[in-house]
Amino acid sequence: MRSGSDLRRALPWMAGWLTLMTVIAVAGREATRTLPVWQVMELRSLIGLVLLYPLVRAAGGFAAMRTVRLRQHAARNTVHYLAQAGWFFALGMIPLAQVVAIEFTMPIWTAGLAVAFLGERIDRAKLLAIGLGLLGVAIIVRPAASGLNAGQLIALAAAVGFAVSVTMTKSLTRTDNATVIMFWMLVVQSLLGLVPAALSWRAPDAGVMAWVLVVAVCGTFSHYCMARAMHHAEATVLVPIDFLRVPLTALTGWAIYGERLDLLTVLGTALVLAGNLANLGWRRGGTPLNRADSRSLFKK
Predict the structure, then answer these.
(1) How confident is the model at residue 238 (pLDDT cuts 50, 70, 90)?
(2) Whether residue 293 has pLDDT greater than 50
């Protein structure tokens, strides 16, 4: 497998990720109004396996899904499963924008993990993007004087889990393609969710199953988009771009649920956008977008 750091190829996949993750926030909240989180997650994984099958077949069938890194897949998806559960619980406890905004404390952890374990470097553009993004997130969240509430704490714990998952995904892309990563994610998480889903099972009606289907579609193909994006660019480049989910989700929460969208929220959103523009502008100017193309991030 060969790849370089090519932001131009990564951006379309990141656009898919952003769109699908914004939609899943709404679908997840609607589905978990009626069904337990564990059941929604289990249905999402099982339906996801069906949705993924055309990609599995195109890649060479189940034989092509073999991996020499099964333990790493199991570890990554155990962490991701728990983080995802926290994310779904938080959706029903605090505004959508806060869930996503708190999630973006994860660049602190992702950047450190990527440097420590993946050999990536943090340059001035990445530091500026992360710094402005986190400042914007802090303004949007504005925790109460008494500290973070239960929903915010759960969302924060999920953010740490997602940071570990993102870093492990980047490592896995060095040997396994996006379809293999997705396949094992759905298999492992289906197995992990069997018992908690069975213990909390409720009979779903057609309306809630429609929301579950949206969760499954978005959940399955959003991660495919992220895995493909990571094939082309470094984690510390993609995470600041992912900050765009904050304003997108804030606008969605305002439009659908009437959630607060005040001046400070707009200011925080502007800082998030400024960080992304600074990161992309730096790379188009002083640092060419394809400068790293000659440095393979993957084993050939």
Answers:
(1) confident
(2) no
User: Among all chains, which residue has been given the structure tokens 């892309």?
Assistant: 173
Q: 160 in the Ramachandran plot: left (φ > 0), alpha (ψ -120 to 50) or beta?
A: alpha
Tokens read off for 159: 């953010």
* Backbone phi and psi for residue 144, each to the nearest 5 degrees, phi listed first: -65, 165
* Contact by Cβ (8 Å): 91, 32: yes
Rounded to 5, what percent of the chain is helix, strand, coil? 75, 0, 20
Indicate the average pLDDT of the chain.
Answer: 82
Please state the φ and ψ torsions of residue 221, each to the nearest 5 degrees: -85, -20
Hey, what's the torsion of the CAs at 225, 161, 106, 170, to 10 degrees? -40
Q: Tell me the whole-structure pTM to 2 decimals.
A: 0.76
CA distance 102 to 78: 21
Nearest residue to 148 (alpha-carbon basis) of 134, 133, 138: 138
d(CA 275, CA 244): 10
What pLDDT score was predicted for residue 34? 94
pLDDT at 15 over 80: yes
Which helix (H) or strand (E) element contains residue 87? helix 70-91
Kindly state the average pLDDT of the residues 285-297: 36
User: What's the CA gap between 168 and 2, in Å, rounded?
Assistant: 18
**Each residue's pLDDT tens digit, 65-81:** 999 999 999 999 999 99
Question: Hey, what's the torsion of the CAs at 181, 187, 211, 229, to 10 degrees?
Answer: 0
